[in-house]
Q: What sequence folds into this?
């Protein structure tokens, strides 16, 4: 079995890892740690659950000069929950490095409070883009010339949420050519283009296989036109999961499902980006103490959050951007455990399940749930065929844009390659429209989170 010793890490680090229960490196760690130690900038495609946070924390902490009272690394995450999670992982090292100072900067705390935390320069700062720009660029209380590494965690989400302007401002500050470590669930061309704008560094492209890094069994459950909330209650009673996360795309469905579970005597918690810090900590404590076996959540939670020991992920519907399905499924099967991901559908809601099955990035098996009976569908392929027959439909907006794309690519004379070009143009329009829909829903949720915070502040 591979060992962390193979990276020639210090005794302090090897000991810190062993005491935290990290015995052998994960594939992404084996790949990335040596490169970061050698000072390389990297762009890594890796799913959460693959051990990617430690792939950057281990070499960055190893390289920190704790005797130099200067900021040496900045870790940027798209949401405060993700930033806090990374902060908590990083804090795990503090008892082995008594001089190491790590600070968390997000909107969880007041700016003034953050500034107090900077009277003595920390070695490592973890935070969200807006707050980091506000502090480090606009207020500028620290000398950034010793920053040797910047991490962009969940970079595709940073880009989708429009945070690259804040990040650009950080790079334009007085940092002198830091090493850039980019971690992203997807490596789309627009991300690569934006990164090239951002830094001239010579990126080392790494492709981790997002699917094989977690072991999830995927299932489609035909709920036969029952109310998904009622089906969920029946399903939970049959399956009795150790810890399940239930996802729905719309906030209203998340709210209604949570209430329905409580109304049916099922202890559940509602986990969204808008939970305040105290409620979030309590929720995590309750999960750890086995008081809770069901979490109801929106897609914001699907990105990156590490909730240990999730055995089942249930999708009451599918997100328009199917990429988010894989993020949802990735909440289980984390690290070296396995898990199950269940998608509820019926004939009327078969468009996205069909698209997901046809993507063939995951292999599904089939079940039916009727009343209190969950049965494997012996004619799984027939079920798939039935799905295939289902007419695909798109949103009105998407239909309109596809029509325009068709008109724009149509030509009176049939030129060679015309069909292919038209297909590509239509595909681009569809992808853009799906992406827009998911961006809108994530943004709505973030905005709501900020509005809630503002309301709380006004009430105080
Ligand atoms: P991440 O992909 O960073 O979200 O990490 C997923 C989970 O894997 C976290 O709970 C980590 O504590 C855990 N983890 C990371 N590296 C290792 C390792 N080498 N051995 C065991 N667990 C690990």
A:
């Amino acid at each position: 079995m591979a060992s962390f010793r193979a990276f020639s890490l210090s005794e302090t680090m090897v000991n810190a890892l062993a005491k935290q229960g990290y015995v052998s490196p994960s594939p992404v760690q084996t790949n990335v740690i040596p490169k970061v130690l050698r000072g390389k900038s990297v762009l890594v495609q890796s799913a959460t659950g693959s051990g990617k946070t430690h792939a950057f924390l281990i070499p960055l902490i190893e390289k920190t000069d704790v005797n130099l009272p200067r900021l040496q690394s900045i870790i940027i995450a798209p949401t405060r929950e993700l930033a806090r999670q990374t902060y908590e992982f990083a804090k795990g090292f503090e008892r082995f490095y008594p001089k190491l100072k790590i600070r968390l900067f997000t909107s969880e705390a007041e700016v003034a409070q953050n500034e107090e935390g900077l009277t003595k320069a920390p070695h490592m700062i973890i935070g969200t883009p807006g707050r980091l720009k506000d502090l480090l660029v606009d207020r500028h209380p620290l000398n950034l010339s010793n920053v040797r590494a910047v991490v962009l965690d969940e970079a595709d989400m940073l880009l989708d949420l429009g945070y690259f302007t804040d990040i650009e401002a950080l790079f334009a500050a007085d940092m002198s050519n830091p090493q850039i470590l980019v971690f992203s669930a997807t490596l789309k061309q627009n991300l690569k283009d934006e990164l090239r704008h951002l830094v001239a560094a010579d990126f080392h492209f790494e492709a981790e296989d997002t699917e094989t890094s977690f072991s999830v069994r995927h299932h489609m459950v035909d709920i036969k036109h029952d109310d998904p909330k009622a089906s969920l209650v029946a399903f939970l009673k049959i399956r009795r999961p150790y810890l399940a996360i239930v996802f729905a795309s719309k906030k209203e469905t998340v709210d209604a499902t949570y209430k329905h579970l409580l109304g049916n005597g099922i202890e559940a918690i509602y986990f969204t980006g808008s939970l305040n810090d105290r409620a979030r900590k309590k929720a995590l404590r309750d999960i750890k103490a086995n008081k809770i076996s069901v979490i109801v959540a929106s897609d914001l939670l699907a990105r990156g959050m590490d909730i240990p020991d999730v055995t089942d992920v249930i999708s009451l519907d599918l997100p328009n951007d199917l990429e988010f399905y894989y993020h949802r499924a990735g909440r289980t099967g984390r690290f070296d455990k396995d898990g199950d991901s269940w998608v509820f559908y019926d004939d009327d809601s078969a468009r996205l399940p069909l698209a997901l099955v046809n993507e063939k990035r995951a292999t599904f098996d089939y079940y039916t749930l009727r009343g209190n009976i969950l049965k494997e569908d012996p004619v799984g392929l027939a079920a798939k065929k039935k799905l295939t027959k289902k007419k695909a439909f798109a949103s009105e907006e998407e239909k309109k844009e596809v029509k325009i794309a068709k008109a724009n690519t149509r030509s009176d004379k049939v030129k060679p390659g015309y069909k292919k070009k038209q297909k590509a143009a239509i595909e681009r329009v569809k992808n853009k429209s799906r992406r827009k829909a998911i961006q809108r829903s994530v943004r709505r949720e973030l905005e709501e989170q900020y509005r809630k915070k503002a309301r709380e502040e006004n009430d105080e």
In short: The radius of gyration is 23 Å.
